[in-house]
Each structure stands twice: as C-alpha cells, then as structure tokens.
Amino acid sequence: MKKSILAAVMAMCSIAAYAQVSFGGQVGVNLGLGNAKDGYFAGSIYAGPELANEPKIGLLAGVVAEVDFGKLSFRPELNFIQKGSKSGISGYDENKFSLSYLELPLNVVYKLELGSKGNKVFFGLGPAIAFGLGGKIKNTDGSTGAVYSRKVKFDGKKNGTDDKAHFKALDLGANILGGFQMKSGLFARVAFTYGFSNLYPEKTYNVSGTTYDQSYKNRGVNLSVGYMLGGTKKK
C-alpha cells in the first residue's frame, strides 16, 4: 500500500514537472443560499409552515493557481468568502446569517479553445473545503420588532451557555464552475458550491420535553473576475 502511494506521488511529481503552472487573483460576489431547517417550525404549533430561506450577498476575494496539462488542468483556489442567508417565517422570528470563511475549492478543469486567438472557455468540478473565521446572526422578533445580534464562534461547542452562536468550523462540500479566459490572462467565472456539512454542533434540541431536528448548510453561487499571470513550461 505504501509503495503504491509513493509510486502515485512520484508519478504526479513527474507529470507536474512538465506542466505549465500559472498564478492569479480574483474578486467578486457570492450569493449565499444557506439552507436552515428547524423541526420546531414544522410542527403543529405553527400549523406546518417551514422556514423560508432567502439569499444574502457577500464578498469574495482570493488567489488562483493552475497546473496545465493541455485540455485538462488542476485549478485550485484559496478564497476569503462571505456566506449566509436570511431565514424565518412571515410574522414570526427572522434570522440573518452572516458567515465568513476561508475556502479551498480543488477543481479539475476541462478547457476548450475558441478559434486561434488563445481565448478559451472552461468547465470544472471538485471538492470544496471551508474553514469558518467568524460571523454573526441577527434576529428580528416578528411580534415586537426587537432586533438583537449574536456573534458566531466556530468552535463546535455543544450546549453553549454564553451569548454566542456556536458552529462547526469545518464545512465540506462540492464545487462546479464554468468560465471564459482571454489570452491576456483576464478571466470571468461563475461557480456553485453545495455544502454537505450540518454546521450546528447538535442535530437536535429540546423544548418542553419535545425533541426537534435542526440543521444549517451552506450553499452559494459566486461570480468573479480575475487575472492569471502567464506560466512557463518546466523542463
């Protein structure tokens, strides 16, 4: 097993030695589509309504690398990204989630040349790993209009007794993207990230002896523009 892993690593290093490597940066916006679910609101108390989730706009900024193998390339990114959503039920409480992450999408990309001018379109997919940095949840009471905020702490703490909201720091998901890149290095791309992780440390909670399920999962569509510095073929 160890020999197989070593052989695979050596093969990848050998291939990378002849690949074209380039680096760049990007800025853009993220449309947070976080999905909140709460069994309390789906119960008979509220005659069956479910939480309505609405998008929230945030920023995205980061760096991009590309290891080019021809039509295929490995194109990882490292981004600061703001995620979140607005969830609630009309006439009841409303929560606005504002969450900041450091995210690492690891995409394998297929490229298609457009004519002979060096412009290309690309499509890709891969896993996305995000680590929570901080955030807040703003709650609006539907009956009184009172507003209060709680800071989000990404420590995964269960049964917290302080005034903070405790979330899991690690968020695992999948990423798909597509874009257009000019010969000059300028590019634009759009990506969709689907989070698999339930960020709540506790999947259930108890109210008056009744247990309810709860979950919050990140989703989002982001659009960015950027510039890639020309790579050089390694000999």
Can you put this structure into words, describing what you see?
- There is one protein chain.
- The chain has 235 residues and is mostly beta strands.
- The chain has one domain (21-230): Porin, CATH 2.40.160.20.
- 6% of the residues lie in helices and 64% in strands.
- The chain has one helix at 2-16; strands at residues 20-32, 35-38, 52-54, 56-68, 72-88, 94-114, 119-140, 147-153, 165-166, 170-181, 186-195, 204-207, 210-217, 219-233.
- Strands 1-4-5-6-7-10-11-14 form an 8-stranded antiparallel barrel. A 3-stranded antiparallel sheet has the order 2-13-12, with no helix packed on it.
- Strand 7 and strand 8 (147-153) form a beta hairpin.
- The longest helix is centred in the first third of the chain and has 15 residues, at 2-16.
- The relative contact order is 0.21.
- Mean pLDDT is 84; it is low at 44-48.
In brief, what are we looking at here?
The chain is built from one helix and 14 strands. It has 235 residues and is mostly beta strands.
Topology diagram in text:
Layout: H1 2-16, E1 20-32, E2 35-38, E3 52-54, E4 56-68, E5 72-88, E6 94-114, E7 119-140, E8 147-153, E9 165-166, E10 170-181, E11 186-195, E12 204-207, E13 210-217, E14 219-233
Parallel strand pairs: 8-9
Antiparallel strand pairs: 1-4, 1-14, 2-13, 3-5, 4-5, 5-6, 6-7, 7-8, 7-10, 10-11, 11-14, 12-13
Comma- or semicolon-separated keywords:
235 residues; mainly beta; eight-stranded antiparallel β-barrel; three-stranded antiparallel beta sheet; 1 helix; elongated
